[in-house]
Specification:
6 helices, 4-stranded mixed β-sheet, alpha/beta, 13 strands, 9-stranded mixed β-sheet
Length: 208
């Protein structure tokens, strides 16, 4: 089972790849269109600023590749900034258009008593526990580091939240497309189990 990890010049590719391999899958770090579209699953990582990431994706042509993959049956997972890129737009350092795979906007945490960035272990709340991403799991803590958070336009796209003064988008999903605001590979047992459940969806796709 080959999992394509999209290499567009931004993202913690090594740690994601190692996590995929620990779970028994082949990790293919690539920016090649055919390799991405031919993979059993696709992971879009990301570390850094939204606008810079979109520039890298557009200049490499990988924005169109990711959107083409998302339109098909292949499971797609955006991680951290990669999740935010799935949305329509972001206000990080100006207004930037995203991949528009999921309708919504990425906004900065409002100034107040809570520290920004939101950093540390926070408990998830599963809003749709019947989703296959949560099969056999009980909600627990995962590790967050982010200054911006996503607001979904479609309520059913919001699969899990965490509390940071108010409910904060933690996991999103529609069809075979998913996103996690935290890094599952750095979020202990629950994070790896969530990643494992996503990877299990790629087996279902390959067998169909």
């Amino acid at each position: 089972m080959a999992i394509a990890i999209v290499d567009y010049g931004m993202g913690n590719l090594h740690s994601v790849g190692k996590a995929v391999e620990r779970l028994g899958y082949e990790a293919l770090v690539t920016g090649d269109r055919d390799a991405i579209l031919g993979a059993d699953g696709v992971i879009l990582p990301g570390v850094g600023a939204f606008g810079d990431a979109m520039v890298h994706l557009r200049e490499s042509g990988l924005d169109a590749v990711v959107k083409e993959s998302a339109a098909g049956p292949t499971p797609l997972l955006g991680i951290c900034l990669g999740m935010q890129l799935l949305f329509s737009s972001s206000e990080e350092h100006g207004e930037h258009e995203g991949l528009n795979i999921l309708p919504g906007k990425v906004v900065r945490f409002a100034p107040g008593e809570l520290k920004v960035p939101h950093m540390g272990w926070n408990r998830l709340q599963f809003l749709h526990p019947e989703n296959p991403l949560f099969a056999g799991l009980e909600a627990s803590h995962v590790y967050f580091v982010h200054s911006y958070h996503a607001r979904t336009d479609v309520e059913s796209d919001l699969l899990a939240v965490t509390d940071y003064g108010h409910p904060v988008t933690a996991i999103v999903g529609r069809g075979s497309n998913f996103g996690m605001q935290f890094h599952p590979e750095k979020s202990g047992e629950l994070g790896m189990k969530l990643l494992g459940n996503f990877l299990a969806l790629t087996r279902s796709k390959a067998q169909s």
